[in-house]
Amino acid sequence: MNAWYLICFLSALAVFIAFTNQYILKMQTTIAITTGSVVISLLLILAVKMLGDGTALFITQIVADIDFNQLLLKGMLGFLLFAGALEIDLAALKRQRWEITILVLFSTLVSTFLVGYLSYYLFALLSFPVPFIYCLLFGALISPTDPIAVLAIIKQMSAPQGISIQVEGESLFNDGVGLVIFTTIFSVAFYGTEASVQDIAELFFTDAVGGIIFGLVIALVGHFAILHCKDVNTRLLVTLTIPSAGFALANIWEISGALAMVTSGILLGNITRASASKKYGPAGTRYVKDFWHATDSFLNALLFLIIGMLIVTMPLSWEIIGLGLLMVPVVLLARFISVGSPYIIFKRYRKYDKHSVKILTWGGLRGGLALAMAAAIPSDQIQINGMDLHDIMVIITYVVVIFSIIVQGLTISPLIQKSIQAASAEKNSGL
């Protein structure tokens, strides 16, 4: 067996979990697959630690040989972000463009530094001296939110559009911005990039602005190509070249492929799809939308199972798991402050759902991107109390993400229901 075979088997397992979930657990699909990956990881750990199962050891060796930086950050991420951006409603996004822009830029940066400082002092208090730059790196990777699970719940419950577009728009764009912040801090931490404010700002804006401009360019090329393709299959293939060749080219040029995918996805999902529907009819574009929706769900499912397998290869200890659990309230507090503070100003100019901050805080789930960034941290370079920094970051991130998706994901519904009731009451009183 090799890594490719393992990915094939994990893909089949993800589909099997999704299939059985609709009859047994009946959870939201991402939550079900995340729960399944945790159970499978625990069983495999038990097999390795207690039974010494040769097959399990063989699988963990294969997983340990996978280059997660290439597979996740340089590969799957482009497809995930592009697929998610295709679903964005540009008209609704425009109506809340200032709120989303501030949440994406201000809140992501504030959360990064809050988590960095709080985790630094907490680690030091517990005699676990992690240098500040790596605490800041953890803040950068854990601050971006994942739209997949909570958005499925929001849409399923028909939450008010104002809440839905805030969560959706912020989640997609802060993925791109968060990755730029992570890359910038990563360069300082591991490549010795000069840590002056000017150099960091230059690196950040070159990465971010370059990514957005490149996204506009490939969206323009894709728009032209799709509208001039007579064959429906060729139109689908054109969309596939963007998160594959386009994302690869952005990485080669060292600009933000994440922001490029988000930018191009939003433009193609709104402008190009509308134009193509007029030219070819709704049936001529519906299959593209369905294909990318299925691809998005499939890759997220596969990602969680792969990361679950990665955890098996690491030296787990109650100390690191405990640190991960302590990081949960730290991350939630940083999220509440970074999201809640802009709303103090927002509410002076526009009326919002009174549950907005609560939903954005508790519904700001962490997911695949955080795990991918943690897995990309180099191994065997930094040791903290005799443990590899790579292993520490991945395990702590895994604990926070699992709590986020399973606990927060399963308990966000009552908040959304209150928002629906408040919106209904306001509408009735207006009548």
UniProtKB/TrEMBL annotation:
Supply the InterPro entries for this chain: Cation/H_exchanger_CPA1, Cation/H_exchanger_TM
Q: Where in the cell is it found?
A: Cell membrane
Q: Drop me one GO molecular function for this one.
A: potassium:proton antiporter activity
Boundaries of every Cation/H+ exchanger transmembrane domain copy: 51-417
What UniProt keywords are attached to this protein's entry? Antiport, Cell membrane, Ion transport, Membrane, Sodium, Sodium transport, Transmembrane, Transmembrane helix, Transport
- Which superkingdom heads the taxonomic lineage of this protein's source? Bacteria
CC terms in the record's Gene Ontology section: plasma membrane
Q: Which GO terms describe its biological process?
A: regulation of intracellular pH; sodium ion import across plasma membrane
The positions making up the signal sequence are: none
| Membrane topology recorded in Swiss-Prot or TrEMBL | Multi-pass membrane protein
Ranges that cross the membrane: 6-24, 31-51, 71-93, 100-123, 129-151, 172-191, 203-227, 234-253, 259-276, 297-314, 320-345, 357-377, 392-412
PANTHER family membership: NA(+)_H(+) ANTIPORTER NHAS2, SODIUM/HYDROGEN EXCHANGER
What family name appears in the similarity comment? Answer: Belongs to the monovalent cation:proton antiporter 1 (CPA1) transporter (TC 2.A.36) family.
**Name of the featured protein:** Sodium:proton antiporter
Q: Which organism is it from?
A: Marinomonas ushuaiensis DSM 15871
